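sorry for the late reply, my laptop died twice this morning and i had to redo everyting from scratch. anyway the thing you sent over, i finally got around to it. pasting the sequence first so we're on the same page, its 701 residues, then the predicted structure underneath. double check i copied it right bc i was rushing
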Amino acid sequence: MTDRLESREKVTGAARYAFEYPVENVAYVAAVQASVGKGRITAVDTEAALRLPGVLAVLSCENAPELSDVSDGELAVFQSRTVSYRGQFIAAVVGETLETAREAARLLHVEYSEEAPDVRLRADHPGLYKPDRVNPVFPADTEQGEPEDAFRDSAVQVDVTYTTPAEHNNPMEPHTTIAQWNEDGTLTLYDSNQGASAVQATLAKVFGLDPTQVHVVSPHVGGGFGSKGLPRPNAVIAAMAARAAGRPVKFAVPRQQMFATTGYRTPTIQRIRLGADPDGRLNAILHEASEQTSTVKEFAEQTTTPTRILYQAAHRRTSHRVVALDVPSPSWMRAPGETPGVYALESAMDELAVAAGIDPIEFRIRNDTDRDPESGLPFSSRNLVACLREGAERFGWAARNPVPGIRWEGRKLVGMGVASSTYPAYQMPNQALARAESDGTFTVRIAAADIGTGARTALALIAAETLKEDLGNINVEIGDSTFPRASVAGGSAGTASWGTAVVRACEALRGKLNGAGAGGRGGSSPHTEKGSVPPEGVEASADTAAELKAREDYSRHAFGAQFAEVEVDADTGEVRVRRMLGVFAAGRIINPKTARSQFIGGMTMGIGMALMEESVMDTEFGDYLTRDLAQYHVPSCADVRDIDAMWVEESDPHLNPMGSKGIGEIGIVGAAAAVGNAVHHATGVRVRDLPITPSRLLPDL
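ok and here's the structure:
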């Protein structure tokens, strides 16, 4: 149980976030958003803005420099007169102070040729199409057997449609960049992101630079949840504005502007058909998802992919259809695809269990499998059943009356629900450097990102174990693009990916220190007492690309089970989660303290998804009406009364040197379904459109 190594720096303010770096002669940027949902900019009147004392520059489509690579349409800022959605950045003002910049932005007058925007996702939209692939590289559709016939012939059936709304993953720290062009033509960015290497590579392409000419600094990040996984327009605007003003600039996207410019989870419409034998064994699984993307950039979320691996059925079909609307581009949000997809699947599984008269946990256990149902590959490890059974015992599932809507406590209806969870155990190629210092300490460098997950601490523990050294002798340096290249903090792949590179670099260093050569992996402690290492130190590096290519073929996934008990006020329809438990099988847990925090954080977001979170689209003007944290509701302490997470022991030799699976995202997967299933058990009412608000629940109580 190790505390975060940087915890003291964070609570004392010593840890610097992007906006806090001291840069001399800095100016400030304020951005202007489109006020129409679709159209074309016909004129930009800058006269009043430029008259304001302290205004240094105004950028728009009328004077912005041409960018070199705008293959990512969201980064093509000011490159066109086209307005693709309301809230799109269309201009920026640089001022001596932030107040000056904001006032000048208000004075900017933009004229448009306006068109009516198309902003509503619907299952019968004529523009729905099959994408070439869904995030990240999955086929859009899969089919085995005769799913239509098998479903029709099944003794027990459900044919239901679930919807999830758009959700925004606004982290506490807004998307922020300080940009500075140096005298030698290089660019320095102090940027809040989930991967310094990715920002470096992308911004270099956008501005026609060699990657070595872009330096990205990002050691501390105040949350991301996927929204900072790739560079957003703020980084491009800051760099462009710094060049125009001839001095460094700061740009922190205001909270109200983040809802249109920093990504969100696509809304979904999901039809699920499940068919089973009388004994509760699945014959047919059909899962069809409709979702939205923008006209600027395609993002097709992998909504039905978890259905491909969770349960066995001989006849199965999964599909995705996407429509390009006049809306901001959706992007990654914690467990993209798995979160809405498992909500629908696990809700439908609950409905089928009720229809079959089988306990929901027993029903899931009967349909477990030891091989990937679609690829046929064996799972490297799969302990879903262990999670279900362990959780059932700890949660008191045996005392649950199977009949819904009969447990009253005063005017409160009380019920329990369960749902399975899964998330892929991804691993990406990475590089790392390990160095023995002459003072007896060790330094590990990798351009990884710690977005609040405890990654820095986990990597230090991994290095200490590999080097057989005390944790206090390990210094981990991350969040800088000059360090060895690292993949983004996303897909719950960070510890597995970065950690493997750290292990290999530390093994190579031990080999050097023990005289076994750069590739040595055996031996005893490096024995780096002061004086035994030359003043310049000894270092070794590693690249895991070849190792990953040589891995054996397994289906690698983490699994879990979520349990929820809710109370529903019969008079108001208000739902409260009394207690919640998550049990997970995620390989070896590197640091139990931060791991539990990650699981509970995901589960808390699942409560928000089930009961509160909804970004409401104004279909007339094409804008999200929920534009701050006063209107966009997330769980507070009063909403999370009793929540706990635990894990079963799992040894998996087919993963990585640590034997670990990702944990950052699986906590949210299945959580909303567990709450929804508990609401049904409490009331007998099935709400299939999230969030489960009193207005949706009360009419049927």
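The first strand starts at residue 27 and ends at 33.
thats about all i looked at so far, will dig more tmrw
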